Structure prediction request, 577 residues.
Amino acid sequence: MALHPPPAEQQEDSWNATLAELRGEEISRLNLPPPERDETTDAAATALVLVQVPSTADAASRSPALHQAAQGHSRSGVAAEPRVELEELLRRLVSSRDQATRNRVLRFLSAASSEERGLAERILLSTRLHAARELLRERLPAAIVAPGVEPKALVLDQILAVDATTFLLRGWLRDEDAPITSLVVWSPEGHAVEAWPPAHQYPRKDVETAYAASATGSPSFGSGFTLLLELDHPSYWKRGWMAQFRNAAGDGVEAAGPTVLQDPGLVRDTVLDTLEPPQDDAVFAACIAPAVQRLQRRLAAEARVAAIRQFGEGPADPVVSVVVPLERRVDLLEHQIVCFGGDPAARAAEIIYVLESAELAHELAPRAAGLSELYEVPFKILALAGGIGWASAVGAGASVATAPLLLLLGREVFPKTPGWLPAMTELHHQQSGIGALGAKLLYEDDTIQHAGVHLTRPGPGSPWEARSYHKGLHRGVPAANVTRRVAAVSGACLLVRREDYERAGRLRGAFVGGDQEDVDLCLRLQAAGLENWYLSEVELYHLEAPPYPRLSLERAKRYNLWLQGHLWNELIPRLER
Prediction:
C-alpha cells in the first residue's frame, strides 16, 4: 500500500507539537521506564501512541495536540491500518539507527505492555509491539531441520503461559559447528531474555536418532531443553514468540514458536502429563514446581462463592461443621443424606456441600430440597464459580463453617452405623493436644483402606510416601482395632479444631488433585506441637472415586511426592520418632 506523507513543513510542525505533548502526559500513560528516555525513544513512543489514539472526543480532550497529529496523519493519506502505520512511523524515526540503539528502543517500547489495560487493549497493543519488534530486531537465518544437510537446528515445541509474565518452554537445539553460547527468547512484544544455559537439558532420543541416521561424523552441541522464562513485563498475545541461538563462532539461527497455551487448568495438566522419568531434582526445583505452584494459586484465586443455599433449618449452635466437596458428583449426595437421616448426631451437625459448578447447583436445588425434607437433614450447598481442586473446595466450605470443630469428609464416604460422629467429637474433646483425628475406612468388601498413615521411604534417596496401616486386611484384624497416635490421617475423614486448622495455615493448595494435602496438613499440625490420632472404633465405607483420569493421577502423584519431600524431608524423621 502506497503511503503519502504530508508536506514537510506541516509534518515537522505536527511532529514537534506531538513530541512536546508526549513528554508530558501521554508517554507517562504508557508506563515506559524513565531511565531509557531520550530523543530516540521519545520518537519511538510517539509512533506507538499515535497509532493508539482513537478518533473520539475523549482522546481530543485528553491530548489535543496528539489527537490532532494522529488525525493529520490519517487525513494525509497514511494507511489507517495500525500495523502498517506503526511500521512506517518507526521506519521514519528509528530504523536507520545502529542495532544497539534499535535494541534499546525495543527494550523501551516493550515496557508499554501493562496489566492495567483491558484484555482487548492488551492484545491490540501486543500486536503493535510485535510489528515494532519485527522492524527493529536483528535477524538471523531461519533454522531448518535437515539432518545431514544443515548443521544447525532450533525448535520450540511448546510454550505454556503460567501467568502473564512467566512461561514454560520446551524445545531442542543442535549445532555441529561450534558450542552454543547464547539462546535468546523473544516475546511477541519484544521482550528479549537470555536463556542459556537452560535449567534442564536432556538427550532427545528422537533428535539423536534422526541425526545419527545422517552419519555426518561431526560432533554435536545442544540437546532438548526445558526452561522457565520470567519476563519483566506481561505478554498476552498467543502468537509471535521466537528464539535465536548463537555459537562460539558468532553464527546462529532463529525459529518461530508455536501458539501459546494459556488456559491455567490445561497448562497445569500439560506440565504434569509431559513429565517423563528420569526428572532430576534440579528441573523440579527450577521449572516444574514453580510453574505448578503458580498455576495452583491462579486456579485457587479464581474460586469464588457464587451462591449459598440452605435446605431445612440449620442448627443454631452446632458442635461440628462437616465439609463435603462434591467435585461435580451430585449423585453421591443422596446416598450420604440417606445415611445421615438415620443418625441424630449427623442431623444436628452443620453440613456443607461444596459444588464446583453454579450450573449444577441450580439443577440440584429442587432435588436437594426434597431430600432435606424427606430425611429431615438440614444442609447447605455452596456453589463455586471458577477454581478447581479438593483444597479449593475445602477452603471455601471451611470459610463459611461456624462450629468449633471441622470435619473434612469425602463425597464417597458413608457411615457404617450411627454414633460415629459423637465418638469422634468426644475423643477430640477428651484427649488434649489432638491435631487431626481420623477413623477406620473400609472398602465395600470390609477390608481396610485406611487405619492411620505412616511415612516411609521405599529405598535410599526415594521420596517419602504416605502409606496406610493394614491396608487390604480384614477390618477385624487385631492390630487395626487399637486407637493410637499416628503420623497422619486421611482427608476422607479428618476431624480438626477449626482454630488449629486456621493456625496451621489451612490446606496449602500446592498439591495437585488433593493428593498429599491431608498428610501435609497433619505434618504441620504435628510440627506445631499437636498429635494426630486414629480412632479404631469408628468405621466408615470409603469407595475411593478418583476425580482425575488415571494417567493424570499418576503424573500428579510423582509431582506431589517430590513436593512433599522438598517440604518435609528434613523434618519427617524427627516427627516420626
Observations:
- The first strand starts at residue 152 and ends at 161.
- Residues 1-8, 18-35, 50-84 have pLDDT under 50 and may be disordered.
- The chain is about 40% helix and 20% strand.
